[in-house]
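**User:**
If convenient, please work through this fold.
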Amino acid sequence: MKKKLTIDEQIEDLKKKGVTFEIMCEEDAKKFLRYNNYYFKLKSYAKNYPINPKNGKYVNLEFAYLVEMSKLDMYLRKIILGMCLDVEHILKTRMLYDVSRNEKEDGYNIVKKYLWAYPNTKIEILQKANSYNFTSDLAEKHSLDEEYSVWNLVELLPFGKFVELYTMYYQEYKSPNYSDYLQSNKFLRNAAAHSNCLMSSIMKPKGAKKFRNALSQAQKEISLHARSKYMAYPTFHDFVALLFVYNDLLKEAANRNMRDKTMDELYHFFCEKDGRVLKYKEYFEKNQVIAEAYRFISGVIQYIKKQNNNPKHKRYLKI
């Protein structure tokens, strides 16, 4: 078991590991660890920095760099969570619209099939009826019913459960949908909602390159090497998947203003000189891992913004 450390001891531990305090002094660092963020979470961002094998200390790592990464992570999580909530709302709206037009589906049949396939879901709904939350009244109202309607159920299901229902519906009734892409959205949504560190380890174990081909038109903004490399890492893969789903789902005229506003916010955040990411760009210019990762994401955002302004562009994903 690791020893519990006071804030003073946390500072000393960082210093032993090679972290310096030239930009932010030790007293300000102590205040930050007391009032703004905690040691375990802040130190996780150090994974993006190399360690000198000779002395076991971090190379070129200032405490202020960790602070800045934690702030950027916080701002990005807020943007991502807002995007994920928009996606969830539009998916529910589109699915219920499809149900309303489907002469083969009465709104109850698909729920029967879903609850048969996922029996624990009904138990969870009944538990909601006996606890306080914003859907407890709805859950209680239908707790004695033998049958649930799909328009009731979508209000009671968390996003992960809704993805199961959504996937089942479009397997049953074939029509364009986003089932293939929603696991990535779910993972990123959960990470953002639970304040997990998205930037704590940019280079995590490799995953699928599922959406790499969707970037094949972005040759000016992103090199083939970068597409192949970064789409193999889960955090980048899931973020790009969210960007594609978001921009495809909200491309209709009724949602386009919301889409463009979000993309303007992302473009300003990542790409503009007075945006938040570039505010202290000198902190990260010597870190090749962070600098290259930034260039990839900013390239994706520039590509999407350009395509959104192209009247000939149709969509990013095959559905």
User: Anything to note?
Assistant: Residues 63-101 form the longest helix (39 residues). The chain has 14 helices and no strands. The two ends are 50 Å apart (CA to CA). The chain has a mean pLDDT of 90.
